[in-house]
Write a structure and sequence with these properties.
This protein has ten helices and no strands. The chain is an all-alpha fold and 307 residues long. It starts with 10 loop residues before the first helix and ends in a 13-residue tail after the last helix.
Length: 307
């Protein structure tokens, strides 16, 4: 059957996203200007980073890879309710989408939808549902983290995240038992998959907390666990806004003991993300290109078996 052309988004939405990207660049440029103007903080941070424990550097570079793996697992669990997408393919797609989402209009979101439609026959509305569910889970985990921090400090956060992990683990057992050998069942999405993703998202919040502790330790400005939890949860909420760049850095700066220190730490954090994310995105693109090039027979798109 002929393909239905994809309708472009409303012009006002496109303009708003472009404006958000421009505003983000402005905020990012302002952050760089403040750090450069301060001078002393940047010099001390670079000196501390050059002489930091190599284990901190290695861990700081490795944790974004772990975040990518966990995000891939979330999208895989949520998407497999609609199509048997292999986990490795979803990991490559997540890497590409994440690297593209830093560009104007967040093309990675649309790219994921188009790819899954062409390669696996996932309906646009189902892909949109998966995206909204992933966003909703981020909000739930971040708000639970902030609420736990406000009510019970670190113990409250650990309790909140622990409960989410337990719920996700129990759901994983149920989900795996119901879907083992059967694959996805069209029209009967396995709701437990959302709870599985919830538990994984909670683990991901722990990883983000560790990342903030490490990046401040790298510049010899260590922060406590409670402060790292606040920064991680706040950064996750801010990352959902249309402004892809700049806003997170200023949010971290406003919540830190010093604006220049917070900006320096998160600019360095952003640099590490790019240093890890861009190669991952390129590898993901190469893996997807290879897989797509193997699928050349007419009528095979959208019916690929699970690896």
């Amino acid at each position: 059957p002929p393909r239905t052309p994809t309708r472009p988004g409303p012009p006002s939405t496109a303009r708003a996203r472009v404006l958000g990207f421009v505003l983000g660049l402005a905020l990012l440029a302002a952050a760089v200007w403040v750090v450069a103007r301060d001078g002393r903080t940047l010099e001390q941070a670079l000196h501390a980073a050059r002489h930091a424990d190599p284990r901190i550097v290695i861990a700081l570079a490795a944790l974004p890879v772990l975040n990518w793996a966990l995000s891939s697992l979330i999208f895989w669990v949520l998407t497999r309710r609609f199509a048997p997408v292999p986990l490795g393919e979803m990991a490559a797609l997540t890497a590409v989408a994440s690297s593209l989402n830093a560009l104007p209009l967040r093309p990675g979101l649309l790219g994921r939808i188009v790819y899954l439609k062409q390669m696996h026959g996932v309906r646009v509305r189902d892909s949109a549902r998966v995206t909204l569910e992933a966003i909703g889970l981020t909000v739930i985990v971040a708000l639970a983290t902030l609420l736990g921090s406000a009510l019970g400090g670190v113990k409250g956060v650990l309790l909140a995240l622990g409960l989410l992990v337990i719920i996700g683990s129990a759901a994983w057992t149920a989900w795996a038992g119901r879907s083992a050998g059967a694959g996805p069942r069209p029209g009967r999405p396995i709701d437990a998959g959302v709870l599985v993703a919830l538990g994984v998202r909670a683990v991901e919040m722990v990883v983000w907390t560790a990342r903030y502790m490490l990046v401040f330790a790298l510049i010899a400005r260590p922060i406590g666990l409670d402060a790292a939890i606040l920064l991680a949860a706040s950064a996750q909420i801010v990352s959902l806004l249309p402004i892809a760049l700049g806003l997170r850095e200023w949010t971290v700066a406003m919540l830190s003991v010093s604006t220049p220190i917070g900006l320096t730490a998160d600019l360095l954090h952003r640099a590490v993300e790019l240093a890890v994310g861009v190669p991952l995105g390129l590898l993901g693109w190469w893996a997807l290109w290879r897989r797509r090039s193997r699928v050349r027979k007419p009528g095979t798109l959208g019916t690929q078996p699970s690896d």
